[in-house]
Amino acid sequence: MDFALNEEQRLLDATLRGYLGEHLPLERLRALAETGTGFDEKLWQGLCELGLQGILVPERFGGSGLGVLDAAVAAEALGAAVAPVPFIGLAMATLAVLRAGTSAQQDAWLPRIADSEALFGVGFAGLAGQTGEATATLAEDGLTGRVTAALDCAMCSHLLVVLGDGRMAIVAADGPGVRMTPRRSLDRTCKVTDLVFDAAAAELLSAANARLETALRVLDAGRVLVAAGTLGAAQTMLDRAVAFAKERVQFGRVIGSFQGVKYMLADMVTMLEPCRGLVWYAAYAQDARDVQDAGPHEARLTACHAKAHLGDVAREVSRMATEAHGGMGFTDLLGLHFWFKRIAFNRQILGGPERCREEAAILQGWAT
């Protein structure tokens, strides 16, 4: 089966990369990282004008009606630029409304997402393997408890909270009984937030018959998008290492002519290139699980493997790409650390490699 990108996906990729290349130069990225908000409102507005926020929203609600594979193409382009925008959280919230919301809830929320009126952060109270507190509970009086390290909450209007039993609820970010505290993270272009709820009003997405399976589908898609972003960031680090090796002169020769440097660059290519097919297939499986032979087991399994494998491979690529720059690679001047930190951040968010591999082993009957 051929998983090469089609013409529309190549156009999406080229459009996003062109826009980000023009509007997110290194100096702008450096200034945004200094603020530590993890969000560039102007950049996000521009991307919304291109339709990024509605990529997963069906056309009848004002979106593009595309799938997870298309969203993964977008996530890879965003990762390549380490763009400080809340795409993955919004994509997961969109899928949650699509898969667990009633018809009335879809009518209410999906047009608002497509029109950029609703911007979501996502917090998991279990399921994702996060560390820290995840004690949120939902009762008749509302949502109560804590969720640490919620994703994409900077400037969000609403929160999607996923409970350990698979129930998913929407909460107004500025509503009574909601307190959000930004947490300093390794990647200052991708903020995480601690959430505290005190009988906060919550709208339960109640249409899913198998709520745990539905919540895991949302998690699977999120992991694939994170893996795609990691792929984009690692590829940028590799490309920059190759470009540096072609221009840096030592002992009267460009360093790319040295056999040791050639081996280093070749190792990065051979590690990273197979990851592209893995991510694309994992994204394809998310879309195909209901309509073709790629069932839920395979979709879940490939999501776990893509997230785990990209986390490990990209970490090695980021290390080697930094070393290929010599001492310059460790300085702020080149800015490699932005991609290095995004890769490290993505490795742990929504479950680290160990957690994902454990889940994959359970799916395959190798562990309990």
What fraction, in percent, of the residue positions are helical?
40-55%
CATH superfamily of the domain at 211-363: Butyryl-CoA Dehydrogenase, subunit A, domain 3
Tally of contiguous helical segments: 11
**What quaternary form is this?**
single chain
- Cα-atom radius of gyration: 20 Å
CATH topology of the domain at 211-363: Butyryl-CoA Dehydrogenase, subunit A, domain 3
Overview of this protein structure:
It is a single chain. The protein is an alpha+beta fold. The chain has a domain at 211-363: Up-down Bundle (Butyryl-CoA Dehydrogenase, subunit A, domain 3), CATH 1.20.140. The protein is 53% helix and 14% strand. It contains 11 helices and 10 strands. The chain has helices at 7-23, 26-35, 41-49, 68-80, 87-100, 103-114, 211-247, 259-288, 296-324, 336-348, 353-363, and strands at residues 120-125, 137-139, 142-151, 158-163, 168-172, 178-183, 192-200, 203-205, 249-250, 253-254. The longest helix is centred in the middle third of the chain and has 37 residues, at 211-247. The two termini are 33 Å apart.
